[in-house]
Amino acid sequence: MKVLVLGAGQLARMMALAGAPLNLHISAYDVNTGNTVHPLTHEILGKGLASAIESADIITAEFEHIAPDVLAQCQESGKFLPGAEAILTGGDRRIEKAVLDKAGVNNAPYHVINLREDYDAAISKLGLPLILKSALDGYDGKGQWRIKSAEDLEATWYSVEAFLAGADDRQCVIAETFIPFDREVSLIGVRGANGDTAMYPLTENIHTDGILSVSIAADDNHALQQQAELMFKAIADALDYVGVLAIEFFDVDGTLMVNEIAPRVHNSGHWTQQGAWVCQFENHLRAVCGLPLGDTTRVAPTAMINMVGHVNVPQEIMSDCHLHWYDKAPRPGRKIGHINVTAASREKLAEKLTKLGQSLDSTEFPAVKEAADRLRC
Ligand code: AMP
């Protein structure tokens, strides 16, 4: 079966690696160049969207910031899963918030801002502190403003006003109540076309400067897992979703609140490559290709450490972990690979992370020690 992935980054690459044993042939459509490329070598396989669609059996996506006309063309083919509506939802916080409300899941109170009067209304409705997020093109904490006190109000408005003036007409800003969360967790789940679902255990995420640093899959909190799974089902059903869907939550004193969703395989699910019976990449392909879903059981406590920008990775750490390079040139803030560490128990995982923390530069890998400390709590 031939699967076309919209986007030609590391997620398409890892789908190709996971799909090969199932005889699933992955090609990647680079939305920037309009070329279809091999997801590993980036060799050009074809030009133009129409021929890419024509030669695919199934179309899916590895990111959500895709032009609406590209999504519409894929949707028209009848081959696109999870489909244009789901991708648009993940790429536009305004639509996302409406879907979360429709699904009836707990999420931060919000107000949509286009004009100064909306801004003033947001402040009187939600109070302070507030976080403002661009509706489109927001990822890894980009396109955000934080308002801590009344003193910040005027300066923030001028910045938001300038941002909106320079943006296209579809852009707006979402104001959200600032949630004083204890920690951030995410759920990666998969839904088949027949409505079957399978979900991985919750992952705890540590971010540095808005970018995911470490994900830890070692928790067995059944009450939280249950809350997350119910919300997954509500959202996935509301979108009639097919494929892997990631949901990021705030954990506020044992109650989960959805922060955002990603209609695709997700960085906080990379641990499943070594830590689960069937990884998220294979499960996504199974779902969109109409194959039975795979077992999402965690085989061992696992942590995933992102490699971001220029990093030194001593070879000797390979005796304790798996390296996944993306074959990408390092640039500040760019994810170029990740490290998966599995261990027989939570305590052993903490030990391994402590040892890794001693081999890795703490400015390049800022959250490894914190992850080890969290495992010991
Ligand atoms: P996002 O791009 O929405 O995931 O936001 C990036 C980061 O900002 C999140 O990982 C949180 O740490 C923080 N954040 C986002 N929304 C809120 C909120 N409503 N309250 C507090 N922190 C937030």
Automatic annotation (TrEMBL):
What EC number(s) are associated with this protein in UniProt?
6.3.4.18
Chain coiled-coil ranges? none
A GO BP annotation: 'de novo' IMP biosynthetic process
| NCBIfam families referenced in this protein's UniProt entry, alphabetically | PRK06019.1-5 (NF004679), purK (TIGR01161)
Query: Which family does this protein fall into?
Result: Belongs to the PurK/PurT family.
What this protein is reported to do is described as: Catalyzes the ATP-dependent conversion of 5-aminoimidazole ribonucleotide (AIR) and HCO(3)(-) to N5-carboxyaminoimidazole ribonucleotide (N5-CAIR). Catalyzes the ATP-dependent conversion of 5-aminoimidazole ribonucleotide (AIR) and HCO(3)- to N5-carboxyaminoimidazole ribonucleotide (N5-CAIR).
Record-given protein name: N5-carboxyaminoimidazole ribonucleotide synthase
